[in-house]
Amino acid sequence: xxxxxxxxxxxxxxxxxxxxxxxxxxxxxxxxxxxxxxxxxxxxxxxxxxxxxxxxxxxxxxxxxxxxxxxxxxxxxxxxxxxxxxxxxxxxxxxxxxxxxxxxxxxxxxxxxx
Length: 114
Fold this sequence. Notes:
There is one protein chain. The chain is an all-beta fold. A six-stranded mixed sheet has the order 1-2-3-7-8-5, with no helix packed on it. It has strands at 11-12, 27-30, 47-52, 58-59, 68-70, 83-84, 89-98, 104-112.
């Protein structure tokens, strides 16, 4: 006998809503293209799950500097945005990484469901 685990949805992204540090460790659903809006200043260790439950793709906002690192891609080439197809989810995690210039750069790691 198996038991299904159903996560509790912590928040729903509304049109034009910004993702905030208060949503750390939350499961966030979206049916709006471009919401939630992901800021460039999430702290190290911030992590949340985004679920696109609409019939249309969710595309993140475009960041001025590429910060999204997509799982199963070349980690050294961050992207300016990412897309979740209908029914797809991802875990978004913020982490500081060493940059090629010897300093650190914040990156958002995006691990999508298949």
